Amino acid sequence: MHTLDKFYIDGTWVSPEGTGTMPIKNPASNTQIGTLSMGSAADVDHAVAAAKFAFDSFSMTTKPERLALLRQLLDVTRRRQGDLAAAMTAEMGAPATMSFDVQAESGIGHLVAFIDALEALDEEETLPNGDILSREPIGVVGMITPWNWPINQIALKVIPALATGATCVLKPSEHTPLSANIYAEIVDEAGYPAGVFNLVHGDGPTVGAAITAHPDVAMVSFTGSTRAGVEVSRAAAPGIKRVTLELGGKSANLVFADCDLEKRIAEGVAECFDNTGQSCNAPTRMLVERPVYEKALRLAAMAAEAQKVGDPAKPGDHIGPLFDEIQYDRVQTMIRKGLDEGATLLAGGLGKPEGLEQGWFVRPTIFADVSNDMAIAREEIFGPVLVMIPFDTEDEAIAIANDTEYGLAAYVQTGSAERAARVSRRLRAGVVAINGRGSDYGSPFGGYKKSGIGREGGIFGLEDYLELKVRPPFQA
Ligand code: TXE
C-alpha cells in the first residue's frame, strides 16, 4: 500500500494543508493500492511562493549551469526508468514492456532532445536592425497533466522550465500520482535548488483551478480534455497569462491503394489500439481508398483478432485495461452509440474480453461502413475503437480527414512520395506520420483547431517558456 501524504515544495517533502484523500487504484484488478492526500488552494499558495522566490536566482543561472543540471537529471532519470515504468503499470495499466520502453523512456528521450535544443538556443542575438534581442524565462509556470501518458506529459512541461530558467508548480493527474512522486524524487536527486520544481497533488477544480488563477503564475501549460482546457483558458484570462493547451484528437489515417496494404493496415490497427486507445494522437479514423476497402476490412479484422489483451504486469506486446471505471463506461457508451447509429461491427464490441472480467479491460473494436457524421467518427472515444470509412478520391479523403473539430495528428499510407508530400500539405494537423514513421523527440508536438495552442518538445517547446526582450546597442 502506498501512502502519498506529502507534497514536494521548496525542496522538501511537506504535509499538505488540504485534508481530503483519494484512493489510488490498479485498473487491472480494480483494487486499491494506495491513498493520496489531496491539496487545497493554500498548498498552491505555498508552492507558488516557493517558485516565485526561487525564480529570482534560477532565472539568472547561465546556460552551462542549466545544461549541467539537465545532464544530472538525465543520469538519475535513466537510473529510475524501471521505477517510473512499474509505477505507471500499477496506476494506469500500461503493460510492463511498453511502460518501460515507451512511457518511461519518453522522460529520457524528451530530455536528450531538450538538452540539444538548449545547446542550440541563442539566448541573445543581434537583430538585422542592430537591436539586441534576449530570450528570458517567463516566470513561474503552472503545469497540469493527465493520466494517459503521465511521464511523457510531465517531461514535456517540467524540462523546458528547468532548461530555460523558469520555475514551476506541477499538478499531475490525481489518478497517476505514483509516477509523479518518483519524478519529484528524480528532480530532487539531480540537485535542483529549492523551489525550482514543486509538486502539489489534487483535483482539477481545487488545485488545478487555484494554479490557473494564481496572480503569481505567469503561464499555465495544460494537457487534458477540451472541456478542462476551456475552463483553464477562461480562468487564466483575467490574469493575461500565457496558456498552452494540448487537448484531444480524432486523427485520420489515409490509406491509399498504392501502399503496402498488409503492413499498413496491421500497423494502423495496432497504433490505434496502442496504450489501449488512450492517446490524443491515436489514428482512430481509418479512411480507405474504395478499390482496396473490402480487402482492408479483412486485414483489419485479422489485426483486431491478433491483438492480445492481458495483465499489464506481465511483459509482452499485449494491451492492458482502460485506466478506470469512468473511462470504461465512456467507451462502452460510444460502442453502443456506434451500434445504434448503424455502423457495421467488424471486431470486438460491448463488454469485457473473456477471462478479464475484474479490471477495466475492453474488447479491441472496429466499426466498418462508418460515415464521418456519426458520433463514433466525430467524438474522441479514448479507447481501442477504430472506425473505417471508404473514400473515392484524394480530394474526398482530405476533406473527410479535415472534417473534424480537432487537428492534432494525421497519418498517410502511400507508395508515392509526391502524394505523401501533397496530401500532408493539405491536412490541417500539427503532426503527420507517413508509412508508419512519425516524428522524433525534439520535433514540435501539438495541434491545430480544438486540439490546442502551442507546441511541446525541442526548440519550439523551449520557446513557449521564454519572453522576448529588446534593447538598443549601447551608446554613451
Ligand atoms: O480529463 P481532464 P479526464 C480526454 C479523453 C478523456 C477525456 C476525459 O477524451 O476521455 O478527456 O478525461 C485536470 N482546471 N483526454 O476527465 O478532466 C485534472 O485534474 C484545471 C485527452 O481525465 O481534462 C487532470 O490533471 N485543471 C487528453 C487534467 O486536468 C483541471 C488526456 C486532465 O483531466 C480542471 C486526458 C480544471 N477545471 C484526457 N479539470 C490528451 N490530450 O491526451 C480537470 N483538470
UniProtKB/TrEMBL annotation:
Domain Aldehyde dehydrogenase, chain residue ranges per copy: 13-469
InterPro entries (UniProt xref): Ald_DH/histidinol_DH (IPR016161), Ald_DH_C (IPR016163), Ald_DH_CS_CYS (IPR016160), Ald_DH_CS_GLU (IPR029510), Ald_DH_N (IPR016162), Aldehyde_DH_dom (IPR015590)
GO molecular function: aldehyde dehydrogenase (NAD+) activity
Record bears the keyword Oxidoreductase: yes
Keyword vocabulary terms for this entry: Oxidoreductase
Gene3D superfamilies: Aldehyde Dehydrogenase, Chain A, domain 1 (3.40.605.10), Aldehyde Dehydrogenase, Chain A, domain 2 (3.40.309.10)
Domain of life of the native organism: Bacteria
Annotated catalysed reactions: an aldehyde + NAD(+) + H2O = a carboxylate + NADH + 2 H(+)
Enzyme Commission no: 1.2.1.3
Active-site residues per Swiss-Prot or TrEMBL entry: E246
Oxidoreductase keyword on record: yes
Family: Belongs to the aldehyde dehydrogenase family.
PANTHER family in the record: ALDEHYDE DEHYDROGENASE, ALDEHYDE DEHYDROGENASE-RELATED
Protein name according to UniProt: aldehyde dehydrogenase (NAD(+))
Organism of this sequence: Aliishimia ponticola
